[in-house]
User: Fold these one by one.
Assistant:
Number 1:
Amino acid sequence: MAAYLRRDMEDAASYLEQTGNEFGAWLKFDIGQVERRLFEKMLTVADRTRIELAEFEARMHEAQTYHTGEITGPGVLRCEECGEELHFSEPGHIPPCPKCHATSFVRAKQ
């Protein structure tokens, strides 16, 4: 750590000597670099978060999708293709849609 600090102080002294500027100008330049780097890192995290959120939403949709042959509990399933509703009064196997023969369903909002 001491070596890094020494390097930075020597860099600051060199900058001040070469430019004739004050220490505050060097410090402001250094803070600007830190701000830019931090902003770049935040964008990277935001992009990764956006991708992970989209993947999560896709997994949630798949988890909420019921397929022909699976067992469902009582309630109403709606065909994702044509909107036909299948009513279940007790647990049972999900058949193909009686209207369009599709095999994907979601719970109907009541």
Number 2:
Amino acid sequence: MQDARGTYEDFCLHSGNTEDAPPLAGVCHARGANSAIPPIWIPYFVVEDLAQALTRAKEQGGEVFDGPRSCGGAQQMAFIRDLDGATFALVGS
């Protein structure tokens, strides 16, 4: 990753031994494209229909505070804060 202050690395935990395996969680610097995301480990939940899952999350009181946005390939992701302030991401198409 890179922003006006220079280059840096964000991290993603995958379910297998390669980056091609589905992502399980990530932690990002609160910089650049990820400046709205808290610098904590965030679990990812893969969903079939991201738009439908986001609608359901909002109906249940969740706040979509970043995204949806591309996370590589055809997949999109969005970051949600639940009623207690916990953060998680939904990943889908």
Number 3:
Amino acid sequence: MSIEIKIRKNEPVDRALRRMKKKLERENIIKDVRAKRYFEKPCERRRRKEKVMAFTQMLRRRYAE
């Protein structure tokens, strides 16, 4: 999977970089790369997912009122 950003006519490079970063963020590429940087044991992965689920449940209960 490759990301391709074409620089528009008279567009500054920093603006093109910003567009590329936003595209990477939207497609969760940076998140996946950071997650796969180190091996995560299955029990750690399960614990992390349970922690996220508990947090979302807490938020749902808090804002359901």
Number 4:
Amino acid sequence: MNNLWDHLLNMRISSATATADQAQAKSYDLERRVKQLEAEVDSLTLILMGMWELLGKSNGFYLKDLEAKMQEIDLRDGTLDGKLKSGPTTCGECGRVLGDRRKICIYCGAHVSKTRHLPK
């Protein structure tokens, strides 16, 4: 009876160890992805700052002009929230606007690209 109990405990321990190993691997992968995204944000921040300094000075724009344009763009999706919500998907073949989750155009049958249609 003890052997059966020991075997059952060993199976449960092995299962818990495998689950912990999977969670640790996922944690490492997510940590790596967060670091990659942070690096991309840093790079984009430098690019945008450089572009603003070049364009702003040469065209006589001020920070208030940039802030006004950012607000205008933010409001294109109908909400002033600091985010851009993607609009519906546009078929690359026939140009028709489709639901966001479509992978195949219901009008022409083409595979749908992830080009977004943003309101102007």
